[in-house]
Amino acid sequence: MTVENDSSRPLSRGDISRSLEARPALRDDLARVTESFFVVGGEGAPEVETTVIPVESAGGGRESLQYEIRLQVRGVRLGEHASPPPFGGEAIEERIPEEQLPDYEQLLTPFVPDHLAVEPRPQRLLKVLKRIPERLDDRTRYNTTIFDSDDRQVFQDTSYPWSAFGRCETNFGPFSGVMIGPRHLLTCNHGIDWTPPEGFAADWLTFTPAYFDGNAPPFGSTYATHVYWVHKDNNNGVSDGEEGQYDYVVLVLNDRIGESTGWLGTRRYTDDWDTLEVWWHIGYPADLTSMQRPVFQSWFALDGDDDQDDAHQIVRHRADVFPGQSGGPMFGFWEGDVGPRAVAVQSWQNSETNGASGGGDLVDLAIRARGDHP
User: Fold this and answer.
1) What is the pLDDT of residue 212?
2) What are the structural domains of the chain?
3) pTM of the predicted structure, to 2 decimals
4) Beta bridge partner(s), residue 6
5) Given a cut of 50, is residue 360 above it in pLDDT?
6) Mean pLDDT, residues 347-374
7) Which residue from 273, 237, 260, 248 is spatially nearest to 329, judged by alpha carbons?
8) Which whole number is the average pLDDT over 119-142?
């Protein structure tokens, strides 16, 4: 089989314009941004007052207008913590037959909103400031694999598709994820706290698309209300047993934030794509940015485990990753699509290779989540 004549294969570096062509936003949209936080109140509901304060910024013109939104909440019980709620979920046990996938294609395609510009490559590249020394102690085992010539680049860009990537957070800490539907998030299984209060499937998770330096999120933020999985991670901090084959979940979010950010499509990874240098990854690493800024790496190869079913397999690679990038997708571009599609998520690393997790089950989760919760 030749790559050039197989439209089912992802596009190479020189062919990406056949999928994604740069364009400005098609309309100027002043929309609503939702930002949630949680407090402990008394018997009555808290009262909220809002103040809008203009903030001076460098430069002039309409694009430089900025405002501080200050909230004053009365009726809050001080000194008590409140968290986003835990949520329910379902384990998916039956796979969708491959011949039926065309029936669900509308749930697997990417989406780009008219109010966002489109850029085939992140535009604002930033200086890298490493928080972890380059010369590591040989006697210490670090939970990372950065190969010679670190190719990750820090960026700040809210055009599509870079708008759809963001930072997740649970009580385990921050990690990475991506929108794959209007209220549907793809991320790693091992970032989920599977020990919630009785009656729930998992403890809280929040998601902020285009998270950058903890500033007010350009698309707002939201929290999860439902989760779909195949096998739960045991939350012991390492990828053992078969966990590397199932390290992905799809979450349903409280808000339709994807209509503002756009979203990626999904596709089943197949070993026919092994060794093709066509893949990208985006995540929030601890070593370069303290999980405050996203990085991307592009045009590397994936290698699915030949001894594992394409339905759920470890997908090895030598892209550079560090804790915090877990849950960030491995994605590529296809001719005829308006944006990229995710095929796996970053899962684990050791001293010799890095591992993502993907396969047909990932797509089945996306279909089920989007079908049950449009």
Assistant:
1) 96
2) 13-27+85-372 (2.40.10), 40-82 (no CATH)
3) 0.91
4) none
5) yes
6) 93
7) 248
8) 65
User: Which residues neighbour 15 within 8 Å (Cβ) at sequence distance 6 or greater?
Assistant: 335
Burial-class residue 241 by CB neighbours within 10 Å (0-12, 13-18, 19+): exposed
The answer to whether the beta carbons of residues 284 and 291 sit under 8 Å apart is yes
Interval 196-238: pLDDT, tens: 999 999 999 999 999 999 988 899 999 999 999 999 999 988 8
Cα dihedral across residues 172, 177, 181, 182: positive or negative: positive
Tokens at 194, concatenated? 């599977």
Supply 164's token pair: 């759809």
CA distance 340 to 357: 18
Query: What is the distance between the alpha carbons of residues 275 and 10, in angstroms, rounded to a whole number?
Result: 12
Q: Give residue-wise pLDDT tens across range 82-127.
A: 999 999 999 999 999 989 999 999 999 999 999 999 999 999 888 6
- Dihedrals phi, psi of 304, to nearest 5 degrees: -70, 150
How far is 330 from 16, CA to CA, in rounded Å?
16
Of 96, 7, 113, nearest to 332 by C-alpha is 7
